[in-house]
Specification:
With about 325 residues, the chain is an alpha/beta fold. The longest helix is centred in the last third of the chain and has 17 residues, at about 275-290. It has ten helices and 15 strands. The chain is globular and about 60 Å long. Helix 3 (about 130-145) packs across helix 4 and helix 3 (about 130-145) crosses helix 9. Its main location: cytoplasm. Belongs to the zinc-containing alcohol dehydrogenase family. Quinone oxidoreductase subfamily. This is Crystallin, zeta (Quinone reductase). Homotetramer.
Length: about 325
């Protein structure tokens, strides 16, 4: 065993339900890396909205109980399986997936879901890359077919996926509009690639966006809260526009006729359905972005492991996102 002690603190979920089902245990056995696995000492772990849906039992994908949540980890390699040659003990890394769960002091990950963490980024930023940036890239390019010169509206741009979408779209030559719910959020997205920002709490913000686009509409909308915004999104799209459904918290009523008049598309985005080839394409694009300097995650709220219940409450009920939420074990 590479670690100096054989037990760790980790969050365990024994039943699906509210945030209170997240239990901190201090006697969880540290797993051994086998084959193509690596063991990572976790310095930071990203908290994503999808983890609250999985925990509640309402998501299509349900892990076997009990489980430890967490996909996006940044830390230091503690040990490697016998077939791993790309990493060694002491390497700084980030993950786009874990085997044993990231809300813990140590986590196992498959080596092909682990990437070197550039010295340009700290561990908290490393933990903010995985799901947000891969989701944004998939929504924009793999599913949204975005092209340089097109316009994109990131509807709810101040959270992890939103900031990622603004940075990627700007770097790839799109005109970027974003919405946020606070002045602080609007300033944040302007600093992270948006050409213009709108406050989605203002009664007439939809009219302001229409005005800004010269009444032509936007080509793509990245939608974080489709159960609230989808009907309005259809009014904002240009001809052959597409709305990418990244987040949703319930049903919504729309008039399908609105899609016919301009031949609009409503496209669902699920990172879990990405093929191995798509995963590798995304990872390559992100590593290029880190090297070029435009991929720079904005970290928001930070919580120690024992405050994970509060983190899950806040990510769903916050008055306005401001960067990526992270746990610090």
């Amino acid at each position: 065993m590479a670690a100096t002690r054989n037990v760790m603190r980790a969050i365990r979920v024994f039943e699906f339900g509210g945030p209170e089902v997240l239990k901190l245990q201090s006697d969880v056995v540290i797993p051994d890396p086998k084959g193509n696995q690596v063991l990572i000492k976790v310095h930071a772990c990203g908290v994503n909205p999808v983890e609250t849906y999985i925990r509640s039992g309402s998501y299509a994908r349900k892990p076997a109980l009990p489980y430890t949540p967490g996909t996006d980890v940044a830390g230091v390699i503690e040990g490697v399986g016998e077939h791993v040659t790309a990493f060694k003990k002491g390497d700084r890394v980030f993950t786009t997936g874990t085997v044993s769960g990231g809300y813990a002091e140590y986590t196992l990950a498959a080596a092909d879901r682990v990437f070197p963490l550039s010295d340009k980024l700290d561990f908290r930023q490393g933990a903010a890359i995985g799901i947000p940036y891969c989701t944004a890239y998939r929504a924009l390019f793999q599913k949204g077919r975005a092209k340089a010169g097109e316009s994109v509206l990131v509807h709810g741009a101040s959270g992890g996926v939103g900031i990622a979408a603004c940075q990627i779209a700007r770097a790839c030559g799109l005109k970027v509009l974003g919405t946020a719910g606070t002045e602080e959020g609007m300033n944040l997205i302007l600093r992270n690639g948006a050409h213009q920002a709108f406050n989605h709490r203002e009664a007439n913000y939809i009219d302001k966006i229409k005005e800004c686009t010269g009444m032509e509409g936007v080509d793509i909308i990245i939608e974080m809260l489709s159960n609230v915004n989808l009907a309005a999104d259809l009014q904002l799209l240009a001809r052959a526009g597409r709305v990418m459904v990244v987040g949703c918290r319930g049903p919504v009523e729309i008039n399908p006729r609105d899609t016919m008049s301009k031949e609009l598309s409503i496209i669902g985005v699920s990172l879990f359905l990405a093929t191995e080839e798509e995963r590798q394409e995304c990872a390559a694009a992100l590593l290029d972005g880190i090297a070029a300097g435009w991929l720079k995650p904005s970290v928001g709220s930070e919580y120690p492991l024992e405050r994970v219940v509060k983190a899950h409450e806040d990510i769903i009920n916050s008055s306005g996102a401001r960067g990526k939420m992270v746990l610090l074990p």
